[in-house]
Design brief:
The chain is α+β, with helices and mostly antiparallel strands and about 675 residues long. The strands form 5 sheets. Strands 2-3-4-5-6 form a 5-stranded antiparallel beta sheet, with helices on one face.
């Protein structure tokens, strides 16, 4: 008997196997309103009596009573057992299959019980926060909601808003003394912070407006807290728990999903109160990400609810909002480029955010703006031209460089041609002949732009794990070897490793930079590099990151606090590398750079292979057909024509071998030049 399939695999199959797609492979479905109908295959059906709900991921036949999810449908239709169906769907959707043996099965039962307890604690906590909002302690918080946010009591009740009192442990005392929950369970729910082996325990949320976060089943899974007294951070989220993964959640998705389907459009805004305010004004097809850039998983959730995959990003109009929008575009631009989603951007230039806009305009006005939102490519191009005077040579050169970099991402298609023409007209400022010349030059530059290896398309299965390991080691050496800190920064710059791929490592790296700036000033790196200030350098290497980093992360990024343990409490294997730290560090950096180069090679190989080569015979034929007399240097002429006709293929070939030579030099460096 084969081992049982792990519940994580089953849940992943349920998430990815869209019921409309599954049933459509066997039954012709027609859209009717927000649902689909078809001939039921489980009885002698003469008219469409089976309804398929994309929203509920459920099918039901009103004649014979057959119904269930995608797994149940395939079990009934194919006469296969549960495991076979799940395995088939897992394979189709590229899901890694995990199994359970006897001990694992028992462990899962315990885990299930633990999850149910967490849901109970979070539900009780939500109700406690609500009660605090409506008593004397929450008077100021309620006043803020009613008078400053202009929310009525119905919307406050609908979103079940609450208040965390300005006390150290009121919630903790209630949950332990009244509800009799254990400290461990409360901690696992992300509601308390403990220090000194639970000798000091205090509530995570204090003097904050509380916004509960619900899953699609309407269960409380986490909380967001807004500071009321200027306490930083302004917004504080629950850490990730057994029942809460930020990257898989969208705020208010439980309320918005049906309206997204009805309007065939999802609006994504920046924060909790943007969503709440929009819902209060009747804009109820909007959601928010939970402090993270919108990822592919969240996009797929939204796409399930909109037939035409219409998604509008409406973030704040300040610089932070623009940067957040760009991060989302980078996350999902591959999907957009291949027209898998219709992504648009709305920026309310004269208003801070959607909430402010709706204080002076109607919801109809807002919907009109949504309909006129810029296609993401147009928005990106507008950002490149923003605040640039192209009559000045420096600005013009900068704009052209950014345009080439951006347009090179677009696949060779009518879309690219359209935007080449569009930006050329913009650069020429109405001069038609100049526009044609600009278009020709841009086309050549875009075609020759070197790909920099950031696309995940050319990743091998284990690339990301190797890269994460190497990036973690760089942080480890930086924290534990102060005398190598300047070397690490110089090497990262020299090797063009301008960012870390791992989000957690990126946060830790930026946190290190913030700590150093707070101790030494914002320009400390330039001063250290350009001056011979030994005192400043000594202060730099004497910063105790092992002490400062945990405190900084616990305040600003509590969700990744566990990640730094490997850097401040390393295992024995990592400790041994400190004996020859510099050489080991350079080896790690070489591996990181090698990973980038290998991705470039895969890209260049593919680009090279897609070229249609003109043979020497083709070249000779072309020259013979020329009306001009034969040249005395016919061999050179053939050679020149061959190079001209195959210029792209030759370019990719040269770039590939250059990259391979670079990889060889990195391997020599990594192995101490012994190759």
């Amino acid at each position: 008997m084969s081992p049982a399939i792990h519940p994580d695999t089953i849940n992943a199959v349920k998430d990815k196997a869209d019921i409309v797609e599954v049933i459509s492979e066997h039954v012709v479905l027609k859209k009717r309103g927000k649902e689909f109908v078809g001939i039921c295959p489980f009885h002698d059906d003469s008219k469409p009596s089976m309804t398929v709900s994309p929203e509920k991921q459920f099918y039901y036949c009103f004649s014979c009573g057959a119904g269930g999810n995608s797994i149940k449908f395939l079990m009934e239709f194919t006469r296969n057992n549960f495991s076979d169906v799940v395995l088939s769907l897992a394979k189709k959707n590229d899901i890694n299959v995990l199994t359970l043996d006897g001990p694992q099965n028992e462990a899962f039962k315990k885990q299930f019980t633990k999850r149910e307890e967490l849901f109970k604690i979070l539900r009780i906590t939500k109700n406690w926060f609500k009660s605090q909002l409506n008593n004397q302690l929450g008077k100021n918080a309620l006043d803020y909601l009613l008078n400053q946010r202009n929310l009525d009591k119905n919307i406050i009740e609908d979103f079940e808003l609450g208040y965390a009192p300005n006390s150290w442990n009121n919630l903790y005392l209630y949950l332990t003394q009244v509800e009799k929950f254990s400290i461990e369970s409360i901690k696992n729910a992300g509601l308390i912070i403990s220090k000194e082996n639970d000798k000091k325990i205090f509530d995570r949320f204090r003097n904050r407006l509380i916004v509960p976060i619900f899953d699609l089943q309407g269960r409380t899974v986490a909380f967001g807290g807004r500071s009321l007294d200027g306490q930083e951070p302004k917004y504080l989220n629950s850490p990730e728990t057994e029942v809460f993964e930020k990257g898989k959640m969208l705020f208010a998705f439980d309320k918005a999903s049906s309206n997204i389907r009805k309007k065939d459009k999802a609006i994504v805004v920046e924060g909790y109160f943007d969503v709440i305010s929009l819902h209060a004004k009747g804009v109820n097809n909007c959601v928010a990400s939970l402090g993270t850039a919108l990822n592919k998983y969240q996009i797929s959730q939204l796409c399930r609810c909109t037939d035409n995959k219409n998604i509008v990003i409406n973030f704040d109009s300040d610089n932070a909002g623009k940067l957040a929008t760009k991060r989302i575009i980078r996350e999902i631009e591959a999907l957009s480029l291949h027209e898998q989603i219709n992504l648009k951007i709305l920026q309310l230039h004269q208003f801070k955010d959607p909430d402010e806009y709706l204080t002076k305009n109607t919801s109809d006005d807002y919907f009109n703006l949504i309909e006129k939102a810029s296609f993401w490519i147009d928005w990106e191009i507008d950002q490149i031209f923003f605040d640039k005077d192209i009559s000045k040579a420096e600005d013009f050169q900068n704009v052209v460089s950014l345009l080439v970099r951006f347009l090179s991402k677009l696949p060779q298609s009518v879309t690219r041609t359209h935007y080449l023409q569009k930006v050329s007209e913009r650069l020429s400022r109405g001069q038609a002949r100049l526009a044609i010349k600009f278009e020709e030059d841009l086309r050549k530059q875009v075609k020759g732009f070197r790909w920099h290896g950031r696309s995940q398309k050319f990743d091998l299965p284990k690339d990301s794990s190797y890269r994460d390991k190497n990036e973690s080691e760089v942080i480890f050496y930086y924290v534990n070897c102060p005398n190598l800190r300047l070397l690490i920064r110089d090497e990262l710059t020299k090797r063009e490793i301008d960012r870390f791929s791992s989000k957690q490592i990126s946060i830790i790296w930026s946190s290190i930079h913030e700590i150093e700036k707070s101790k030494l000033g914002s320009d400390y790196l330039n001063l250290i590099n350009n001056s011979k200030d030994q005192d400043l350098y000594n202060d730099f290497i004497n910063i105790d990151l092992i002490s400062y980093l945990p405190d900084f992360l616990s305040i600003n990024y509590p969700e990744i606090i566990d990640k730094i343990n490997q850097f401040i409490n390393p295992n024995e294997l990592l400790l041994t590398t400190l004996n020859n730290a510099k050489d080991n560090l350079l080896g790690t950096l070489s591996l990181l750079e090698r990973g980038k180069s290998m991705k470039r090679c895969r890209h260049l190989i593919q680009s090279w292979s897609l070229q249609r080569l003109k043979t020497l015979e083709n070249c000779i034929s072309i020259l013979i057909d020329k009306e001009s007399p034969e040249s005395s240097d016919s061999i050179d002429e053939i050679d020149d024509l061959f190079k001209e006709l195959n210029s792209d293929a030759i370019k990719f070939q040269d770039l590939y071998y250059t990259e391979r030579n670079h990889i060889f030099s990195l391997d020599k460096q990594r192995c101490g030049n012994n190759l």
